[in-house]
Each structure stands twice: as structure tokens, then as C-alpha cells.
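Quick illustration, no need to memorize.
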Amino acid sequence: MKILVAISNVPDTTTKIQFSDGDTKFNSAGVTYVINPYDEWYALVRALELKEANLAEKVTIIHVGLADSEATIRKGLALGADDAVRIDGEGPDAFFVAAQIASYASANGYDMVLVGKETINYNGSSVGGMIAGLMDLPYVSLATKLDVSGNKATIEHDMDGGTQVVECELPMVVSCAKGMAEQRIPNMRGIMAARTKPLAVVAATPTEALTGIVSYSLNAGRTTCKMIDESSIDELVNLLHTEAKVI
């Protein structure tokens, strides 16, 4: 079984977010980038676990981005992936990214495509489903457990009020959520090996974006907390009706 793991290059969670060009572009100056945690901790690590259990013969990382993202890709290789592919293009939207990954996966015969449930910068949770749709493959979202036996995968994912267990024949696409695997830290041997592992650069296929950014804005942030005496229930009810906002 060959597994393709899609990773995204995202700002570190401690980054101070700023915008430029009239709030139409993300200002990347001075920003430290990392592998999207859902892609790294859950999708990639689970793929590596399947390989270690001799259920997969190869784990490949794929990323859609420019050359400045290669340090992030190398970290994925340091964790244990066999090789990596960078689609040379800056994705204008999720559909562009999904189309690039789907095109490469289709051409190279992968049995399973794993993605994180969402990215921490856009939180769109849409790339996995788009990949599956473009490849006409089964798709399971928000998976918390994944086991493989022969040509069949058994997957658990959370649903309202409980957990659903599904079985599906390969090939397929899965988005991975918390519970799928545990975070790993690259060791020195892995870091050294990552320097020489293959990282292919492939030209992006012509794809028209379906959406565009109109503008960005920062969250208002926390406001001061108004304390109400426990005996003042009427005041509390009045404030909930007149001042409270649903966020």
C-alpha cells in the first residue's frame, strides 16, 4: 500500500497576525512557518505507524507551495516519510490545492490519501473532500481511528451522540482528527536522513480558482469581564438580553 499525506505550511500559533495591501493579503514578513499540526500529528504519524506495522510500503508527503516551504517539508521527512513532492504553485484557494493533489495522486496510483481535518490558518476543512470528489473516491472525514487489513480500511469517526465505525475498500481519502495518533518529535538520525531524501518538484497543472479573498480582519479580542453578584439574577437576565453577543 502506498500512502500520500498532504501537508500545509502554516504560521506558527504564536505568530502575530498582520495584513497588508488594504487588508487583502496576509503579511508573511518575519513569520515562522510549521507543518499544519493536524497534518503532522494525525495524518502523517498514522501513515508512518501503518508503515511500521508493515501495512504500508511507502509514505510520501505532498505539498502545494513555493520553494520557501521546503524547510517545512524536510521536517516531515525527518519524522520518517520516505520521500516528498512539492507542487510548484501558490494556491489561491482550496480548490486549486485539492486539484493539484488529486492530479498527482491519480497519476501515481496511491492507495490512500490522508489529510488533516483542517488547517489552523484558514480552518476550511474542505481540501480532503475536494480531493475525493475530483478522484471519485470514497471519503471519510474527521476520522479518529484508522486500521487497514488487506484491501479494506476500518475507520472510526465522531458523530453527534457517539462514534460511527465504517468499512471501506481502498483506494480512499481520509481526513484525520484528534485521536488518530500521537505527536512525534524528529530525532537526530531522522533530521540527518531528511537532508538526502528525495524531494521532487512538479509543475502545477493549470487550474482556475473558484474563490478569492475580498479582505481579512482581526478578531475583536476579549473585552472586559462584567461581574454580577450571585444574588442579582434579574440583572444577569437583563444583560443577557441586552448586551450579550453570540460569537
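Residues 2-216 form a domain with the Rossmann fold fold (CATH 3.40.50.620).
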